[in-house]
Design brief:
Layout lengths: L4 H9 L2 H14 L4 H12 L3 H10 L3 H7 L12 E2 L2 E2 L6 H17 L4 H4 L3
Antiparallel strand pairs: 1-2
Helix pairs in contact: 2-6, 3-6
């Protein structure tokens, strides 16, 4: 499934603060911890917990969130399907980054081992 320009634009404007509570709920409802979620986000973006608090307070868009991030060099190893999209086929870099994050959160919630999630 290819992303549409409208889909990409919607992701660009979405704030990290609006999605983060859903990430926490998802992983905690499956027996994982907020600390594990923070570890996954830090692995992908380089952001510490205090960085994330600032991003949430400032209500930054995903566009700004990923512009300021230092992506992990192993991020391209994130593959698979999330929200009906095959990650490795997504051409828009921002949409790809957001779906990478979604996929990592999904893997955490499904109980995958941390070393596999972090591609070590």
């Amino acid at each position: 499934m290819k992303t549409t320009p409208e889909h990409n634009q919607r992701i660009t404007k979405m704030t990290f603060a609006s999605v983060y509570p859903h990430y926490i709920t998802k992983v905690e409802s499956k027996g994982r911890t907020k600390e594990e979620l923070l570890q996954v986000i830090e692995w992908l973006t380089g952001y510490t917990e205090s960085d994330l608090k600032t991003m949430i307070e400032e209500k930054v868009s995903f566009e700004t969130f990923f512009e300021k991030a230092t992506l992990n060099p192993n991020a391209p190893l994130v593959k698979g399907v999330i929200c009906g999209y095959r990650i490795e086929e997504i051409e828009n870099p921002l949409t790809r980054n957001v779906r990478d994050l979604d996929k990592l959160v999904d893997e955490l919630a499904k109980g995958r081992k941390m070393e596999k999630i972090l591609r070590t």
